């Protein structure tokens, strides 16, 4: 531990002892505890490093005037100290343990009612329960009683922490085999076996579920035997509030048992009992839980699937289940439930579990998946406000589900999954019609529109044959997309332009002419429809839409970039607009997307140098991007600069982008290579890469400066070893801005080099490089060599936390806050030292 921390820690303890002492912020105590935890885990002993802590804990235990946060912190600290056997012995000898962890002590002081203290007591207890001595203390002090009572605490945080600590007790019992610990374990099991007699049944069931997942035999078997009767009793009560926690317990217990063992058979009977309850909502929840748990019992899974499909069968009238099915009574109950507003949640449970149903083997499915697709499509039509469809099933439900976005999104999500069903081509036209209806409907919520677009992409992607899409369907879809591109809600416009970009990436398909083509051409008529639409969206008043349109344009034009197709006038206009976005857009989203556009363009071109407009735009994009106020724009600009650097100097064995590059890396044979290096380096200077990197390395945003420093080191490793001895081939670049110039001036002032400034500049004014912020000429190799990039990299790779969030800084902040709150004329430090000792 740092000696400075050791020297001032007693004073900090004194500050914490003083009633009413202010702390720098609410997290100071948690940070202090985190530091102590780190010391305890990495050092030999917490008490060896911080001997004053025992005295601090003892004084707080008797000082009822301490605030609740200090008391809670002290309880946790006591647990942390006692987590080691040596620390436990010291606390025991000082008689601190019995006092601190005695609930009656805090009740008599009138402090137990504070949930902050109770949570500290529980967490301290959990920390200390790491060894056999602590478990013996836990049993002898009879702490199981208050811990069980805290399971039903009105504070959810306290109750949850009590559950976790009880689980830790049993897990520790499992790992220790001494006789002295069985008493506490058995007593715990006895309490938990009386679930139905406690008011906090939900908390106990959560504890049981947690334990059954984590413990192994023989404790698991003992626990199951202890609670099985109570579980059976709870199932027969049919209490809806206990359905979910009961299922969690049963399924957790069932997952690790052999099929032929008695407890497994009893648990399966419990699941059947829950699937045959008289409350439809509870039965649906039970069926969903059984399917999610992937039970090995085929009859149980098949019955659960039939239960979950019943609402869809009833609402749509599509016969998904056998008429001779055994769910006759349940069908009547669910039909009655569907006539009430609460039907929404039931239908959503049904739809959200369709993905689990489709995973079942075909011989266990209640019906072919194509029928489920038909039922979901009919349900979507019933939910659409503008649809004229009527339900052949339960008519009363329609008034509740029409226009309900929750049901619509669940149905669309189910349709996404059902796209993988066999024979989907047969219903593709119906799917397309329903989705077009939703896109055309003015009442469709933006989130529903977004989900509809996702379904289109998914279904088109899995159906390579789109010959069924007629001209009439295409025209209706085009009109719907055009309408949504002009929607008054920006979310709808944003989803539309995103869809146009994603559609380009869908694999090729076949049309009725048996020719391979792109889905974009089949559905929307190709780029002649989408590009003008996206170009218009560049002027959208919402920045999210502008950013999405830029990204979609990059996706749309990428194939033509890869083919090397000549740019059209429209594409040249787009480049001009994007440069304008970089200069004038007030929102960072659009500017980030603009830089990424040029990055995608450069990456897609096999020969960027042949694209004059792209390379002509580079200096403007790099200079403007690296000077942006948004750090992400600057970082994306440096990523573009990295691509240019890699293209200029191809590396046969590329290293990790964040690896530190030494001067020996990328060393090329000197003979015959200087001219190639010189040409490539001049290209980088002309493109504005070097200036952008030198500007970025002094940026105030650490990620930006770090990236620029790494790239400059990479450039130095490539160029300097070959070019250092070639004085007649020096390459100069221009610097704009005072930051880099100031660094160069500091180097000059200490006499490291006087040749950084170009000869032309130095003849005019040797200090001209520092005299103004106008661009100045500097030698690239000289700057790379003189800027202490290695030291800068080591500083940048360190998080600022190593200074501002260090333990020493934290302790000093606590002392400073205490001094600021002291009365005038009082020497707070002298008071604190005397108080501590």
TrEMBL record:
Entry's Gene Ontology cellular component terms: cytoplasm; nucleus
* InterPro entries linked to this entry: ARM-like, ARM-type_fold, BRAT1
| Cytoplasm among keywords | yes
Instruction: Provide one Gene Ontology biological process annotation.
Output: cell population proliferation
Q: Where in the cell is it found?
A: Cytoplasm
Q: What is its main location?
A: cytoplasm
**Keyword Disulfide bond among record annotations:** no
Print the keywords alphabetically: Cytoplasm
Q: Which family does it belong to?
A: Belongs to the BRAT1 family.
Quote the protein name from its UniProt record.
Answer: BRCA1 associated ATM activator 1
Q: Which organism is it from?
A: Poecilia reticulata
């Amino acid at each position: 531990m740092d000696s400075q921390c050791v020297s001032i820690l007693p004073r900090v303890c004194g500050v914490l002892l003083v009633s009413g002492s202010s702390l720098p912020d609410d997290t100071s105590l948690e940070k202090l505890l985190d530091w102590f935890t780190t010391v305890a885990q990495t050092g030999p002993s917490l008490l060896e490093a911080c001997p004053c802590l025992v005295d601090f804990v003892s004084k707080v235990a008797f000082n009822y005037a301490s605030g609740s946060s200090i008391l809670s912190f002290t309880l946790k600290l006591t647990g942390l100290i006692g987590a080691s056997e040596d620390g436990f012995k010291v606390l025991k000898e000082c008689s601190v343990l019995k006092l601190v962890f005695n609930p009656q002590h805090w009740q008599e002081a009138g402090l137990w009612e504070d949930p902050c203290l109770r949570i500290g007591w529980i967490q301290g207890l959990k920390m200390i329960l790491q060894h056999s001595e602590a478990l013996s203390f836990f049993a002898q002090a009879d702490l199981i009683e208050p811990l069980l009572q805290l399971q039903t605490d009105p504070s959810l945080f306290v109750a949850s922490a009590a559950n976790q600590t009880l689980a830790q007790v049993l897990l520790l019992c499992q790992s220790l085999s001494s006789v002295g610990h069985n008493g506490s374990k058995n007593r715990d099991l006895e309490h938990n076996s009386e679930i139905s007699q406690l008011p906090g049944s939900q908390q106990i069931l959560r504890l049981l579920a947690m334990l059954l997942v984590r413990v192994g035999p023989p404790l698991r078997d003992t626990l199951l035997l202890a609670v099985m009767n109570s579980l059976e009793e709870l199932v027969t009560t049919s209490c809806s509030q206990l359905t979910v926690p009961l299922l969690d317990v049963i399924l957790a217990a069932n997952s690790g048992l052999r099929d032929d063992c008695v407890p497994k058979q009893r648990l399966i009977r419990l699941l059947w009992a829950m699937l045959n309850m008289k409350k439809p909502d509870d039965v649906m929840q039970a069926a969903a839980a059984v399917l999610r748990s992937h039970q090995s019992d085929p009859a149980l899974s098949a019955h659960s699937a039939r239960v979950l499909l019943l609402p869809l069968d009833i609402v749509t009238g599509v016969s998904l289940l056998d008429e001779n099915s055994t769910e006759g009574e349940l069908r009547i109950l669910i039909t009655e439930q569907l006539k009430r507003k609460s039907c929404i949640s039931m239908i959503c449970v049904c739809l959200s579990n369709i993905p689990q149903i489709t995973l079942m083997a075909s011989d266990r499915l209640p019906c072919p998946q194509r029928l489920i697709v038909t039922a979901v499509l009919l349900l979507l039509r019933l939910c659409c406000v503008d649809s004229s469809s009527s339900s052949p099933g339960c008519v009363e439900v329609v008034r509740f589900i029409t226009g309900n976005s929750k049901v619509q999104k669940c149905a669309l999500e189910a349709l996404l999954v059902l796209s993988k069903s066999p024979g989907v081509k047969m219903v593709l036209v119906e799917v397309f019609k329903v989705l077009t209806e939703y896109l055309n409907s003015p009442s469709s919520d933006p989130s529903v529109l977004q989900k509809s677009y996702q379904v289109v992409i998914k279904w088109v992607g899995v159906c390579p044959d789109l010959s069924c899409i007629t001209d009439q369907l295409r025209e209706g879809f085009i009109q719907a997309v055009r309408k949504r591109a002009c929607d008054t809600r920006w979310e709808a416009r944003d989803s539309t332009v995103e869809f146009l970009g994603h559609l380009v990436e869908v694999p090729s398909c076949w049309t009725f002419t048996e020719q391979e083509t792109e889905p974009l051409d089949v559905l929307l008529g190709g780029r002649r429809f989408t590009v003008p639409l996206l170009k218009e969206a560049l002027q959208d008043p919402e920045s999210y839409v502008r950013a999405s349109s830029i990204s979609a344009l990059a996706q749309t034009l990428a194939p033509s970039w890869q083919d090397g197709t000549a740019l059209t006038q429209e594409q040249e206009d787009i480049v001009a607009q994007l440069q304008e976005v970089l200069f004038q857009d007030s929102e960072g989203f659009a500017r980030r997307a603009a830089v990424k556009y040029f990055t995608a363009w450069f990456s897609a071109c096999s020969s960027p140098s042949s694209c004059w407009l792209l390379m002509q735009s580079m200096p403007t994009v790099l200079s403007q991007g690296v000077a942006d106020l948004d750090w992400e724009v600057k970082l994306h600009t440096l990523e573009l600069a990295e691509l240019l650097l890699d293209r200029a100097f191809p590396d046969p064995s590329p290293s990790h982008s964040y690896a530190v590059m030494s001067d020996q890396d990328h060393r090329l044979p000197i003979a015959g290579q200087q001219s190639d290096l010189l040409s490539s380096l001049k290209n980088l200077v002309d493109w504005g890469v070097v200036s952008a990197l030198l500007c970025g390395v002094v940026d105030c945003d650490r990620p930006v400066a770090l990236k620029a420093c790494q790239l400059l080191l990479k450039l130095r490793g490539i160029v300097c070893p070959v070019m250092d001895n070639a004085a007649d081939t020096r390459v100069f670049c221009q610097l704009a801005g005072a930051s880099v110039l100031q660094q160069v001036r500091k180097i000059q002032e200490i006499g490291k080099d006087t040749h950084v400034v170009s000869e032309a500049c130095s003849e005019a004014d040797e200090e001209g490089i520092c005299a103004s912020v106008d661009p100045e000429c500097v030698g690239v190799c000289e700057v790379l060599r003189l800027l202490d990039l290695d030291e800068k990299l080591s500083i940048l790779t360190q998080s600022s936390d190593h200074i501002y969030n260090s333990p020493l800084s934290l302790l000093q902040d606590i002392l400073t806050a205490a001094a600021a709150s002291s009365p005038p004329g009082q020497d707070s430090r002298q008071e604190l030292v005397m108080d501590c000792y």
